[in-house]
Amino acid sequence: MTRYWPVLAGLLRALALISAIVVIVFLLIRAVPGDAVDVLAAQGDLTARQQAALRTELGLDATLAGQLRRWVAHAATGDLGQSLRFGRPVAAMVTQALPTTLGFAAAAFAFGFALALLLAVGALLAPRSPLPALVEAVNLWSIAVPTFVAGIVAILVFSIWLGWLPVIGNLPVPIVVLGLDIAGQLAKPLLEELREARLAPHVRAAHARGLHPLRIVLRHVLPAALPVLLALASVSLASLIGGTLTMEALFGLPGLGSLVLNAVNGRDYPVLQAVIIVLALGVVLVNAVADLARRLIDPRVRA
């Protein structure tokens, strides 16, 4: 039983974290001045009586505790409520937008991960080439340039000045912009870990046997750095999600980012909290899987 306790403890921590996220998101969203009825009233002629009746119909006149209890009770059955702005089931709206977000995030992460791996391995094998400096430059880029700024600059250059790509629905540019940010986060720490792993006795023995340097890196150095690589990838997930939502809103992609933007503008509480909680669940789940994978492949973590 004791060998499974770390996994059970991780699941309990994940449940506690998800519960805290639900409450915090619920309260923060409603801390914003105004609600969906105020937005509708600003767009048309609604009397005070009509506004009060609409708040009662939408359940906005209940206390925060009452609204939270009702939302949790419905969410436990899979009912995320109705959009206050569009009157559609929130679950259907999230399900419709989720594939676009997952596909875009997966493409950006794959590009960034592959680029970071190529840069780190190349800099390790050719320390006197420009590659180590390029690793530093990409790392500095990810620290100094926010993704939304890079996205705006990309729109100005490739869509407005050069006219090569449309602004709305353009996929290659946001994938590259977000992928560069991910590569900058991963490449430098990965290179440092590879340099440390190369000093291991079995790696030195492989060098002494005259094996090709690339073969040594692929067969001995990279596997030793795999636990750290998994940790880096899971840590970069939060940045990936934030960048994905930003890029979708900037480039008009029909994903969760555009859904969040419309929900914020319309004070659409059910949509906004559903999207945030779904994303938080995804982060918690991926981190839990990454932690379990590290325990399986790294004896030091199991100990």
TrEMBL record:
| Gene3D superfamilies noted in UniProt | MetI-like
Localization, UniProt:
Cell membrane
Tell me the keywords, alphabetical order.
Cell membrane, Membrane, Transmembrane, Transmembrane helix, Transport
Presence of the UniProt keyword ATP-binding in the record: no
Per the record, its GO cellular-component terms are: plasma membrane
All copies of the ABC transmembrane type-1 domain together span 98-290
Biological process (GO) annotations held by this record are: transmembrane transport
Report TM segments. Answer: 7-29, 102-126, 138-161, 224-251, 271-293
- Provide the topology term for how it sits in the membrane: Multi-pass membrane protein
In which broad location class does this protein mainly occur, judging by the first location in its UniProt entry?
membrane
Matching PANTHER family, A to Z?
Answer: DIPEPTIDE TRANSPORT SYSTEM PERMEASE PROTEIN DPPB-RELATED
Family designation: Belongs to the binding-protein-dependent transport system permease family.
Tell me the protein's name. ABC transporter permease
